[in-house]
Write the structure tokens for this entry.
Amino acid sequence: MNGIIENQQLKPLIYRSKTKSSNQDVYYNINFDKKGQIIDFDISKQISDEQLLMQNEFIKKYLFFTDPISQLTQYFLFNKNSDRLIIDGLNIYELISSKLPDVKFEENNPTIFSGHVNSLKLDFPFFQGLHKLEKKNNLNEIIMFYVNIQNTNIPIQYDIFSKKFNAKLFLKNYEINENL
């Protein structure tokens, strides 16, 4: 990911991603202009002419985008939703956060942090597949726990709730280097 910060919004210029599945690995390369319009979209997945037309129509219809990594990073930096829709290579969606009460992590939790942490709930009020109409979003919500360490919001844990699976991602290590 490569981008710029403007008015507490992280605006991507380059997004590269790889999705692994049992059938194939799919690579996405998306280049944005400074306004958030897509200037180059490359996907390794074979798509039909009809799917390409659908993709281009959605991109033209919604016009301004960010990527999922920029949006999650923006939550850490500014605790703010994006002013754009998110595009990940296969889908377009909106991700909205709402503040939840602080939580206390005890010393025996799986992360490396104990003490009070902030929490956000991330919901998906809008979801559209780029290559398939009526595509279902399998993610219900994500709960993000984070703490401010040395004036930097650090993610401690993600709880991911999906129709197909639930997962927890834990911070196991971090380093803040102020000498850059």
Observations:
- The CA atoms of residues 84 and 92 lie 10 Å apart.
- The radius of gyration is 18 Å.
